[in-house]
Amino acid sequence: MVLIHIADLKVVFSTRSEKIRAVDTVDLTINEGETLGLIGESGCGKTVMGMAMMGLLPVNAGISGIIQYSGQDLITAPEPVIQQIRGREIAMISQNSAHTLNPVMKIGDQIAEPLLVHHLYSAEEAKKEVIRLLGALGFEDPIQAGGRYPHEFSGGMRERVLIALALICNPRVIIADEPTSGLDAQVKIQILHLIKEKVTGNRTLFLITHDLGTASFLCTRLAVMYAGEIVEIGPTKDVLSQPFHPYTQGLLASLPSAGLHTIPGVSPSPSSLPLGCRFSERCTAALERCRNEHPAMKEIGGTRQVRCFLYA
Length: 312
Ligand SMILES: Nc1ncnc2c1ncn2[C@@H]1O[C@H](COP(=O)(O)OP(=O)(O)OP(=O)(O)O)[C@@H](O)[C@H]1O
Ligand SMILES: [Mg+2]
Prior knowledge:
With about 300 residues, this protein is an alpha/beta fold. It has one domain: Rossmann fold (3-Layer(aba) Sandwich), CATH 3.40.50. It has twelve helices and twelve strands. It has helices at about 45-55, 80-85, 95-100, 105-115, 125-135, 140-145, 155-165, 185-200, 210-220, 235-240, 245-255, 290, and strands at about 1-15, 20-30, 35-40, 60-70, 70-75, 90-95, 175, 205-210, 220-225, 230-235, 300, 305. A hairpin with a 2-residue loop joins strand 9 and strand 10. The longest helix is centred in the middle third of the chain and has 15 residues, at about 185-200. The protein is globular and about 65 Å long. The model has no long low-confidence stretch (mean pLDDT about 95). It binds adenosine-5'-triphosphate and magnesium ion (MG).
C-alpha cells in the first residue's frame, strides 16, 4: 500500500540575488513498511526533501507539487493538521543533533514533551514510557540517563536520544537524516543495528544519507538524487550490482572497496541548472543530446527507473 506519494515536488529558495532550485521535480512513492534510502552527494537536496515532508521548510522556501501522506496532501493542509501528523505519524531524526536538543532541559523531559503536547499520556505515564524507551535503546540506567543534560552524553548516546525522540509517539514513518554522521566506526555500527532493530519492522523508514554502505544495510530500495532530482531508483541489491545511471556507477566506483575513484568535476549550482541532463558535464558517456535535452525517467523491467538517454 502506498503511504507517501510525492509528485512534481519543487522547493525553491529565494535569496536577494538568486533562486536556488534545491528540489526540482521529484516524483516518489513510499510504501507502508518499506525502507527507502535517498542517496546523493552534499547539496543535492536530500535534507530539503526531508524538511518538506515534515512541513518544516524555512520562510524563504517556495514549495509546489504534491506530498500526500495516507491520502492527505501535506502541502495544502492547514498547520493544525500538520501538527497532528508531525512527530506523531511522521517523525524525523535530524541531521544535526547539536541543534535539535535543548541544552538546558533534561533529556527525559525533552523526550516526554511530545507525549504531553499531543495529550497521549499523563505526566506520570510519560515518565514511565521514557524510561522504558531509553532502556530499550541500550541505556543501562535509563532513570539516571533521563535526568541528565545533552552535554553530559557522548555522540553515540546523543544519537540514541534522538532516536528516542523520534520513536516516543510510535510514528508510522521515520525520516532519518544522516543518523550516524560524526560517529566513530564502532558506535556507527551499534547505531545502525539499533535502527534496524527498533526503527524498522512495521514502520516505514525514509533514510537520507550520502553513505551507500549505510543505505544498503538499512534499505531495500534506493533512490539516487543528483542536483535536485531523482536520477535512478530500484531495489538496493539491483542498483548496487548493476547500476544504470552513470552517476550511480560513479558513486559505486568511489567506494573504498572499489578503489576510491572520485567522479571528476562538480555538480551544477542549484541556482543555474543546465538545460540538458544535469550530470552531462561530468559524464564520460554523454552524447550531444544529453547537453541539450533533459531526460525523463524511464522504467526498466518493472521495478527500476533511470533518467538517462543511454536507456531511451
Ligand atoms: N534556507 C536556505 N536558503 C537558501 N538555500 C538553501 C537553504 N537550505 C538549503 N539550501 C540549499 O539547498 C541545496 C540543498 O541543500 P540540502 O541541505 O538539502 O543538501 P543535502 O543533500 O542534504 O546535503 P548534505 O549531504 O551536505 O547534508 C543546497 O544548495 C543548499 O545550499
Ligand atoms: Mg543534508
